[in-house]
Design brief:
Helix content is about 35%, strand content about 15%. It has 16 helices and 13 strands. The strands form two sheets. A seven-stranded mixed beta sheet has the order 1-12-11-10-13-9-8, sandwiched between helices. Helix 12 runs parallel beside helix 13 and helix 13 crosses helix 16. The longest helix has 18 residues.
């Protein structure tokens, strides 16, 4: 078993990964070091300082949600003037609170809730956050810390919906193959806090949103379903998505959507006047950091895109075709080289026979299975795909490695990639051959990271 585990407790530190490994002598180590560079670039303490406003005349209230929420809150605490008042509440995923430096006083409360399916703790946190911003004045400042995962963590069902309804709808969306923009369009219209509604509740205070992007295109209206920015989508859009993927909602909510009664605040709404949004980390920036490190190690690096979407296994096949062209023909890039990409792919859960165990795994693992299947043992091609938050789906791994002998080693272990794909069972497939990457939470989230090395 060769599973790579790079954490000593529950928290991954990119600084714990050694300097860039030799790409010829240690391809896996080289790919891991590129991943660490990408994660390091997105750490809130490294990126947030230049975006903080001056303390206001009145109160400063910090609110937020996301997988990076606790790390962002600690960064604000570290950078905010010690003599300036600071308080608030941020919600993050279970297990995603980093160790607190001994010298750092706790001024912002952090609570935990479930992701990707919301729970009662997330709903309670959303209610508390909404209550915190009531009664503010124009002299007050609201700092809103937003990162990926906030949609599930900041849940407050619309009138006529129960938490159980939201959980069922969320599960159906996650298994449908819908894109992140489609899922968040629905979430915004079925919420009392998303889609700009939280910012409206803060009025007349100034709102400054600091966000880490985990979505293709870095649209703040999509990240965590945009609780503090106006929403250009409509009830009709949400209704069309629900119908497209055959997702049912209670009749009373369906009627509200059809009547436009669950509409969100729109661009141009005066209640957003003077609000600011700062993107403190993006997928492209992390890919550029990895590319820079690779070039410094003496190998050409090419960023394909930071906005790749689609079925994970199919995206894997496209990357495989490109890698094979480079390996066999030296086109469109000369070898050796490393191909980098990001974005947010999707996994459509396949129907399975009754009494068949549900597969385990996420987008990164599914990508790796599609890649390995299409590479068919192509020599001198190595790859790593991992989620930059350290969690691939709902498992404990960040992602997985692909090597020239992945298929052969898996066959020896009694695993066929086609069968694993049919079951969406990437975790078990790569666990059997020791090719999981386990980091634990990284305390940031700029979504998918993929690196394909062609020697």
């Amino acid at each position: 078993m060769r599973d790579i585990t790079v954490h000593s407790d529950s928290t991954f530190s990119p600084d714990s990964v050694p300097a860039i490994a030799d790409f010829r002598a240690d391809p896996r180590g080289f790919l891991l070091s590129l991943y660490a560079q990408a994660v390091r670039r997105a750490q809130p303490l490294h990126t947030l300082k230049d975006c903080l406003p001056q303390p206001p005349r009145g109160r400063t209230v910090v609110i937020g949600a996301g997988k990076a929420g606790a790390a962002m809150a600690q960064a604000v605490e570290a950078l905010w003037p010690a003599d300036a008042a600071l308080s608030g509440l941020v919600v993050t995923r279970y297990g995603h609170i980093p160790p607190r430096p001994e010298h750092l006083a706790e001024r912002i409360e952090v609570v935990e809730a479930a992701h990707p399916v919301p729970d009662a703790a997330g709903m309670a946190a959303a209610e508390r956050i909404l209550a915190l911003v009531q009664g503010l004045t124009a002299d007050d400042l609201v700092l809103c810390l937003i990162s990926g995962g906030g949609s599930s963590l900041l849940t407050l069902p619309a009138e006529g919906l129960t938490l159980e309804d939201k959980q069922n709808i969320n599960r159906a969306l996650l298994e449908s193959g819908a894109s992140i923009s489609e899922m968040n369009c629905v979430r915004k219209h079925l919420s009392r806090i998303k889609g700009g509604r939280l910012a409206v509740a803060c009025a007349p205070a100034q709102v400054v949103t600091l966000t880490i992007s985990d979505v293709p295109g870095d649209d703040p209206a999509i990240i965590a379903s945009g609780p503090t920015v106006p929403d250009a989508t409509s009830c009709a859009d949400a209704l069309a998505i629900l119908r497209r993927y055959a997702i049912s909602v209670p009749d009373a909510v369906l009627a509200q959507l059809e009547a436009g009664a669950l509409e969100t605040p729109k661009p141009g709404d005066s209640r957003f006047a003077g609000h600011q949004v700062h993107m403190i980390a993006t997928p492209q920036q992390s890919l550029e950091a990895a590319a820079l490190a690779a070039r410094a190690a003496g190998i050409n690096a090419y960023i394909l895109s930071d906005e790749i979407e689609g079925e994970s296994r199919e995206v894997g096949k496209v990357h495989a075709a490109l890698a094979r062209a480079v390996a066999q023909h030296g086109e469109p890039f000369a070898k050796p080289c490393v191909l980098l990409s990001g974005g947010e792919t999707t996994v459509t859960i396949r129907p399975r026979p009754a009494h068949t165990p549900k597969g385990r795994g996420g987008r990164a693992g599914e990508f790796c299975m599609g890649l390995a299947q299409a590479l068919q043992g192509q020599g001198d091609v190595w790859a790593l795909a991992a989620d930059t938050d350290g969690i691939d789906g709902v498992e404990d791994n960040a992602g997985a490695f692909v090597t020239p002998d992945t298929l052969a080693r898996a066959e020896t272990a009694g695993r066929k990639v086609a069968d694993a794909l049919d079951r969406n069972d990437a975790y078990s497939y790569f666990e059997a051959i020791g090719d999981l990457l386990v980091t634990g939470p990284t305390n940031t989230n700029v979504n998918d990271f993929r690196a394909v090395l062609v020697l």
